[in-house]
Fold this sequence. Notes:
Elements: H1 2-17, H2 21-31, H3 36-43, H4 47-61, H5 66-76, H6 79-82
Helix pairs in contact: 2-4, 2-5, 3-4, 4-5
Amino acid sequence: MRTSSLSQDVHAVSMLARLTVREQQVLRWLAHGKTDREIATMLGISARTVQKHLQHVYVKLGVENRTAAVMRGLELDPGPATRRLENVPGVLPDACQAPENAL
């Protein structure tokens, strides 16, 4: 049984490894409920570029839409989606920065 779990872990890691850093950032922000426009602003790219990154994510994760991509991402690695927003890699605009005294 341990082999099956290890095999699943290796498969999950390999699926996530297919995503570029930018695709991972887009997916993480999507998991936090951000729109394409919000993600674009935070990452300093256009909303169209966000959509293209998402198209690549769908193919690489074997899904067809945003919801399925987030669900697959959570299945593979729930950590990034459950971390506080300021801990998610990517550029955060001032409006999204956590106060200095936040826990």
